[in-house]
Every structure is written in C-alpha cells, then in structure tokens.
Amino acid sequence: MVAGIVLRISPRVNVQPAVSAMFMLGVAGATGAGVARVWETAVGAAIALAGAILVWPPDPLDALRRRLERLRQELAADLAAVADSLATGNQLELDDVRAHSLDAIRDLFEVAPARRALRWNPLRRADLVELPEVERRIGLAARIFRHARAVARDVADTRLTSRHLAAATRHLADAADRVLTGGPAGEALVRAEWELAAPAEGDEVI
C-alpha cells in the first residue's frame, strides 16, 4: 500500500490490501493462518509491483499531456462561446466556464504526484526533463481560465453586443491555443489588439 501511494498517478488510493491484512489478522491470527496469509499477500504484491514497473510502467507525463489537451479544447470552446455571445447577444451560460476553470486548478495539483511517480520509476525517470514544460503550460492554462471566467461573467452581466470585442475574443482564443501547444502567439495578439483599438461602432447593450 505504501508503494502504491508513492507511485500512484491517480488521487484515489487503493486501501483493499491493508483492509484485507487487518481482517485476516483479526479473524485467523490465533491460528497463525492470518500471519501466513499476510506474508503471501506481501510476496504477491511485491512481484506484481515489480512486474508493473518493469513490464508496463505507468506514464504520468502522458496523463498530464492528456489533461493539458483537454484544457486546451475546453478553453477554446469557452472563449468561442464568449465571442458568440458578444456577436449575437445570446445569453452566455457560465456553469461550464466555472467548471472548466476549477478543472484547470485540479489538474495543476496533479503535477506533484506525477513528479513523485516519475522520480521513483527507473523506466520513466528520464521524463522528468520534459515535465517542467508541461507544468508551465498547465499553469498557464489555469491562469488564462481565471481571466476567461472573469470576462465571461462581465459579458453575461452586461449583455453587450460588439463585433470588435467578439473578433478580439476569437483572436485571443487563437493566441491561447497556440501558446498552449508551444506555438507563436504574437500575430494573434496583434490582431486582438487591433480589434480592441477599433472605434466602438455598432456596440449595443441589450
């Protein structure tokens, strides 16, 4: 169980071995069968753990990359919804934006267990070199989500329509998507700045 806590990449801990051991010691401890059963379980767990590490080791870095990809897609969808609301005046639903923002924070907290699991796994230890970049992008996604949630709340409260703000939001979404995939975001940011500086013609509060 202790080894499972150290090497786990999931927040859930499997307590079944410890519960089984206490049960066997309590029920059959008087005859010695409980102790023997605990030793058999320990040997089996050690063999299974060694096999898992050497034959099919967990991949915490890949799990974090999948989380980052999910955050990227959710951020693009949320900013697209904000842009659509600015362009059409449709009511913006904030529940998804809030939920995705909280997901980003939870994903950031998963970096520490992943780092620990990589450090203790000899076959995955080399991935520690790539972990800081993935951590940086997840942290960046969490910060962008925080601002996206604030913008979405303001758009929902003001019920403003503006084609320039809608276009700027789309360009910002493009910039966020590019930076989360490691690409250049400068051009998209320049386009967003140009839209924000444009005269507020046709803007309307519904």
Give the strand content.
Answer: under 5%
- Taking all Cα atoms into account, the compactness measure Rg is 25 Å
Biggest beta sheet attributes: 2 strands, antiparallel
Distance between the termini: 59 Å
Pairing-aware structural class of the strands and helices?
Answer: mainly alpha
Share of residues in helices: over 70%
- The geometry reads as elongated
- N-to-C SSE string, H for helix and E for strand: HHHHHHHEHHE
Record the strand order, biggest sheet.
1-2
Low-confidence parts lasting 5 or more residues at pLDDT below 50? none
- Mean pLDDT over the full residue set: 82
Q: Got a strand count?
A: 2
Number of helices: 9
Features:
206 residues; mainly alpha; two-stranded antiparallel sheet; 9 helices; 75% helix
Which secondary structure elements does this structure contain, and how are they paired or packed?
Layout: H1 2-7, H2 16-28, H3 33-55, H4 60-88, H5 95-109, H6 111-120, H7 131-158, E1 160-161, H8 163-180, H9 186-197, E2 204-205
Helix pairs in contact: 2-3, 4-5, 4-7, 4-8, 5-7, 8-9
